[in-house]
């Protein structure tokens, strides 16, 4: 087991305190359109989850080819718009270096598409969990669940993996958690695709589950929403799918549903 960084120890301790006190991450929310979440206000638990599902299911879909161009905008490097930022390594790489060869970036399904066998349709083209990643790092992550620990990933310092789980770098731990929360609420088995659910284990393989939920909730609290996530959420809503990730707009709702 590796020794956690000082930043992550502090964040994890903070997360434990927040969870115990049923508090929420201290972060300003993004700005959804007026009235977008009206039907969810004041709800908790299963009722809140159901209301959010109905809201965010009102969306458009992209083809798998269209995802390439969308990611070039949603994940553009603010310092060099001709590049994209890779999720796990944090590297800025040319947007034209997309493909399947060594040195390319490709489309990482943060909720692994084999967890529910949805392939590259429906959930498989949902931008709220698709991110650019280095081809070899993507392969290393594979379809593993998320958890702490393992050996450091070659080509992506700060990421760790073992046979059953993957731990992203500290700077995107919360991003990963909020993408997984979105998928668990968006896809409930009422649209021809699997009912995706969180659970608190790893090694889920092809089952429509993703873990480890307790760790994802810690990551969510220790790594709050940042401006890059807000910008991405806005772009997906305005230009592509016309729906939002509610856990970016309202981080406190993750606790209302899963704690």
TrEMBL record:
Signal peptide stretch: 1-28
Pfam family, one: Endonuclease_1
Region (Disordered): 138-167
Keyword Nuclease: yes
Keywords carried by this UniProt record: Endonuclease, Hydrolase, Nuclease, Signal
One example GO MF annotation: endonuclease activity
Protein name: Endonuclease I family protein
Protein species of origin: Prauserella oleivorans
């Amino acid at each position: 087991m590796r020794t956690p960084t000082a930043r992550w120890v502090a964040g994890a301790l903070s997360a434990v305190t927040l969870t115990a006190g049923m508090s929420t991450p201290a972060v300003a929310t993004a700005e959804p359109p007026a009235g977008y979440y009206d039907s969810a206000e004041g709800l908790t638990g299963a009722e809140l989850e159901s209301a959010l599902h109905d809201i965010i299911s009102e969306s458009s879909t992209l083809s798998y080819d269209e995802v390439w161009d969308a990611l070039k905008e949603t994940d553009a490097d603010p310092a060099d718009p001709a590049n994209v930022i890779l999720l796990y390594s944090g590297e800025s790489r040319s947007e034209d270096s997309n493909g399947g060869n060594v040195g390319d970036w490709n489309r990482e399904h943060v909720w692994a598409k084999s967890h529910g066998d949805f392939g590259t349709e429906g959930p498989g083209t949902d931008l709220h969990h698709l991110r650019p990643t280095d081809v070899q790092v993507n392969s290393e992550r594979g379809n593993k669940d998320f958890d702490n620990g393992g050996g450091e990933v070659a080509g992506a310092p700060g990421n760790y993996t073992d046979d059953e789980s993957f731990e992203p770098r500290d700077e995107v731990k919360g991003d990963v958690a909020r993408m997984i929360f979105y998928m668990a609420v968006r896809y409930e088995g009422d649209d021809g695709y699997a009912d995706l659910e969180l659970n608190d284990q790893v090694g889920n393989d092809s089952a429509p589950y993703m873990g480890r939920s307790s760790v994802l909730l810690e990551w969510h609290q220790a790594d709050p929403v940042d401006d890059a996530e807000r910008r991405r959420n806005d772009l997906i809503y305005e230009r592509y799918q016309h729906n939002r990730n509610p856990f970016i707009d309202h981080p406190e709702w993750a606790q209302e549903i899963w704690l």
